Every structure is written in structure tokens, then in C-alpha cells.
UniProtKB/TrEMBL annotation:
<feature type="binding site">
    <location>
        <position position="265"/>
    </location>
    <ligand>
        <name>S-adenosyl-L-methionine</name>
    </ligand>
</feature>
<protein>
    <submittedName>
        <fullName>16S rRNA (Cytosine967-C5)-methyltransferase</fullName>
        <ecNumber>2.1.1.176</ecNumber>
    </submittedName>
</protein>
<dbReference type="GO" id="GO:0003723">
    <property type="term" value="F:RNA binding"/>
</dbReference>
<feature type="domain" description="SAM-dependent MTase RsmB/NOP-type">
    <location>
        <begin position="151"/>
        <end position="401"/>
    </location>
</feature>
<dbReference type="GO" id="GO:0001510">
    <property type="term" value="P:RNA methylation"/>
</dbReference>
<comment type="similarity">
    <text>Belongs to the class I-like SAM-binding methyltransferase superfamily. RsmB/NOP family.</text>
</comment>
<dbReference type="GO" id="GO:0008173">
    <property type="term" value="F:RNA methyltransferase activity"/>
</dbReference>
<feature type="binding site">
    <location>
        <begin position="242"/>
        <end position="248"/>
    </location>
    <ligand>
        <name>S-adenosyl-L-methionine</name>
    </ligand>
</feature>
<dbReference type="InterPro" id="IPR049560">
    <property type="entry name" value="MeTrfase_RsmB-F_NOP2_cat"/>
</dbReference>
<dbReference type="InterPro" id="IPR001678">
    <property type="entry name" value="MeTrfase_RsmB-F_NOP2_dom"/>
</dbReference>
<keyword id="KW-0489">Methyltransferase</keyword>
<dbReference type="InterPro" id="IPR029063">
    <property type="entry name" value="SAM-dependent_MTases_sf"/>
</dbReference>
<dbReference type="GO" id="GO:0004190">
    <property type="term" value="F:aspartic-type endopeptidase activity"/>
</dbReference>
<feature type="binding site">
    <location>
        <position position="292"/>
    </location>
    <ligand>
        <name>S-adenosyl-L-methionine</name>
    </ligand>
</feature>
<dbReference type="GO" id="GO:0006508">
    <property type="term" value="P:proteolysis"/>
</dbReference>
<dbReference type="Pfam" id="PF01189">
    <property type="entry name" value="Methyltr_RsmB-F"/>
</dbReference>
<feature type="binding site">
    <location>
        <position position="309"/>
    </location>
    <ligand>
        <name>S-adenosyl-L-methionine</name>
    </ligand>
</feature>
Length: 401
């Protein structure tokens, strides 16, 4: 199978069956060498990031509605013509060959449309949601919440891959010095005392301390949510609800080495990875519990502190996971908000009086943010970080009892 064919199939799975792009890519990548794997990755993520402007571009030349394969092929080829250093004739012919294998009757149509795309400049005017590369409903909701200028500004940052961010469990200055000595550019992150930022393509396995579990990959906005937790007792019981794959558990474990940490995860299929990560990151004070965060097998008022990193629509991490904008609609966001509210209620049941918890989500929709926490009587503070060049969008709130 060619790279373009694989890209069409992966994107089709994302659009038609709401598959996660990362998982589909991991499966498909196994049959390609490094160079083709990088190309496949770039085609899939490039199209997901710039879907709306690409669609507006080629649609000018479509007299009929393309079938799903033709639609995705047009996205892929238009992406190559506009954003990659692939000669237009090669982008067209390679894509047309892939269409021939997957939907032969669409070949003539795709070929004709792509030739027009290659001859013409991109459209001068795009609708606001197309400029922001967002579905209409997300654009409208964020425009109303944050203002059009702010949305357009942060959406610019969503069009390219993010920096690599690490949470370090060793002295940050010494680690950065070691990285510099190896010729690796690394700078401290401003949002977390243990964050460092590196170029997006950096190979983590070649960095100092990888084998020794001295760091984990985690955006610095997510780290800030963990640093927001201020337990009254640093050697008590800390619950990490919704723990897999364990990034925040690991940071909690290293921040509070004397605490007993219980990492709760509902999805049994995610437990092996959680367990593997925690042992690689030397988190000796953590016990894993497979349980439903909505019905915890724990006494009322038994935990000193709780981190609740709730499942969400991932609207804050579109730069990292641009498929998230195709996976949830506004009704699903409402359903997620109900789940988040219920998880918060159960967390507050098991939290000790005078204990403290952090509610966090990597989404910036108000429904999943202030609408969830504002009715909590012990709300102490809340913060929404909008996505930027240096970090993801994130929301976290400190809540006492
Ligand atoms: C946002 S992810 C957590 C990321 C994790 N805290 C980290 O930093 O690596 C949400 C997790 O919640 C889990 N989850 C979903 N519903 C749950 C429930 N009812 N009880 C416990 N965990 C749940 C999901 O399986 C998923 O692993």
C-alpha cells in the first residue's frame, strides 16, 4: 500500500468512524520505513490541522459532491500543493494513483479538480471559521466567549506541530546544561517549575535521563494543573482519579514522595500502559486501582487530596490532537459535562473535610470549565489557559471541602 493510500484510509476512519488519528497511524506505520512514516504522519496531521481552508480551496472547482475517498484525496493533494515542497505534478499523480486503487470511478474527477487547484492561487477570502480551521460551532462558541481577535490569534498556533514539553523529576538547570552539552536546544517552561521545552521533532529516547525515568512528556499547562494542588498534608492519601496513562500520577508521585498515591482508572485496557509508565518513571509510592470514578470503593471523607483530570472533549489540545475537532459535537460536549459534574460530586464525597482537590480538563469549552465547577461550594480559584505557541489550552480549579 502506498503512503497516500494509507493516509486516505486513516483519515476516512477518523471522519467516518471517529477513530483516533494517533492510534490509526500507529497501526498503519508498522509497514513503512522511517521516511514514509514521517510523510504519512505529515499528510494525516497536516490535513487535520488545515481541513477547512483546504476544503474551501478545492471546493471552488468541484461541480459535484466528491465521494468520501475523493474528498479525502483532494484534501491530501491540496495540502501537498499548498503546504509541502512536493512538486504539484507529483502530488497530483501520486494521489490520483491512490484514488485509482480505492475508488476508480472518481479518478477523472479528482484529476480535473487537482489540476485547477495547481494552476490557481489559494482563495483570497475565507469564512472566519475556515481561517481559524475550526468547525463552525466551535468557532462561534469561542468567538462569543473570547472575542474573534483572540480566537484568530491562538488558532494561528494550532496550524503547526507543538514544541516537545517534558516534566523533569530531577534538577531542571542541571538537566538543561546536560542537554546543551549534547547539542540539544532546551529552555525552561514558564508555567511549571519542572517544565522544559524542546523542538517538536526531538527524539525523547536520546535525551539525558530517558532510561533512568528522569522525565515524562507532558505539556506545561497540564503540569501547571498538578502544581495547583496544595494538599494540607504532604504525607497523606492522594487520589489521582482518571489516571491513565499516568503523566500526572508520575508528577504527583515525585512532588509528594512521602504521600500514598492511589491511581484510579476505569478502563482496564489502559491499566497495563499506566503500570508500565509508573514503573519506568520510578513511582514507588503509587498503587493502581481499577475502579469507576463515579462509584469509588472508598469511605466518605477518606482522601487528603484529589487530582481529578476528567475525560473531556480535548478542545484545548487541537494542536497536538487536531482530530479532536472532528470527534465531538456540541451535544457530546454537554454529555461530557454531565459526566464531569458527576465525577466531581463523587470526588467531593471521598475528600476529607479541610482537604483540597483540583478539577482539570484539557478543554477550554465553558460547559466543561466554569459550568462544571462554579456550583461547587468550596471553589477557591479557577484558571483557563488558552492555547499558545508554548502550551496547550487547559482549565483547572482548586476546590476545598
Ligand atoms: C484525560 S485522561 C487522563 C490523563 C491522565 N491523568 C494523565 O495525566 O496521563 C482521562 C482518563 O479517565 C479515564 N476515565 C473515564 N471515565 C472514567 C471513570 N468513570 N472513572 C475513572 N476513570 C475514568 C479514561 O479512561 C482516561 O484514561
Amino acid at each position: 500500500m502506498s503512503v497516500r493510500q494509507a493516509a486516505i484510509e486513516i483519515l476516512n476512519k477518523v471522519f467516518a468512524t471517529q477513530a483516533k488519528a494517533g492510534e490509526a497511524l500507529e497501526i498503519a506505520s508498522a509497514s513503512f520505513d522511517d521516511r514514509d512514516r514521517r510523510l504519512l504522519h505529515e499528510l494525516v496531521y497536516g490535513v487535520l490541522r488545515r481541513f477547512y481552508s483546504l476544503e474551501a480551496d478545492f471546493s471552488r472547482f468541484c461541480k459535484i459532491k466528491p465521494d468520501p475517498v475523493a474528498h479525502i484525496a483532494l484534501l491530501i493533494a491540496t495540502y501537498q500543493i499548498r503546504h509541502m515542497r512536493v512538486p504539484a505534478h507529483a502530488a497530483v499523480s501520486e494521489t490520483v494513483t491512490a484514488v485509482y486503487k480505492l475508488s476508480p470511478k472518481a479518478v477523472g474527477f479528482v484529476n480535473a479538480v487537482l489540476r485547477r487547484v495547481a494552476e490557481r492561487a489559494p482563495p483570497k477570502k475565507l469564512k472566519p471559521h475556515q481561517r481559524a480551521e475550526l468547525p463552525k460551532w466551535i468557532y462561534a462558541s469561542w468567538r462569543d466567549a473570547f472575542g474573534a481577535d483572540v480566537v484568530h490569534q491562538f488558532c494561528q498556533t494550532l496550524k503547526s506541530p507543538p514544541k516537545l514539553a517534558l516534566a523533569l523529576f530531577v534538577d531542571r538547570n542541571s538537566w538543561i546544561e546536560e542537554a546543551h552539552a549534547m547539542g540539544v536546544e532546551a529552555i525552561p517552561g514558564a508555567l511549571s517549575p519542572c517544565a522544559v521545552l524542546l523542538d517538536s521533532g526531538t527524539d525523547v529516547t536520546a535525551l539525558p535521563g530517558f532510561e533512568a525515568g528522569q522525565f515524562t512528556v507532558m505539556d506545561q499547562a497540564a503540569q501547571a494543573a498538578v502544581w495547583a494542588l496544595e494538599p494540607t498534608k504532604s504525607d497523606g492519601l492522594i487520589l489521582d482519579l482518571c489516571a491513565a496513562p499516568g503523566g500526572k500520577t508520575a508528577l504527583l508521585s515525585h512532588r509528594f514522595p512521602k504521600a500514598r498515591i492511589l491511581a484510579v482508572e476505569f478502563n482496564a485496557r489502559r491499566i497495563p500502559r499506566l503500570s508500565e509508565n509508573l514503573s519506568r518513571l520510578r513511582c514507588g509510592n503509587v498503587t493502581i486501582l481499577q475502579a469507576d470514578g463515579l462509584d469509588l470503593p472508598l469511605e466518605k471523607s477518606s482522601a487528603d487530596a484529589i487530582m481529578l483530570d476528567a475525560p473531556c472533549s480535548a478542545s484545548g489540545i487541537l494542536r497536538r490532537h487536531p482530530d479532536a475537532k472532528f470527534l465531538h459535537d456540541s451535544q457530546e460536549v454537554e454529555k461530557l459535562a454531565e459526566l464531569q459534574q458527576a465525577l466531581l460530586g463523587e470526588a467531593l464525597r471521598v475528600l476529607k473535610v479541610d482537604g483540597e482537590m483540583v478539577y482539570a480538563v484539557c478543554s477550554i469549552h465553558a460547559q466543561e470549565n466554569e459550568c462544571v465547577v462554579d456550583s461547587a461550594p468550596g471553589l477557591k480559584s479557577r484558571q483557563r489557559l488558552l492555547p499558545s505557541e508554548d502550551h496547550d489550552g487547559f482549565f483547572f480549579a482548586r476546590i476545598g471541602k
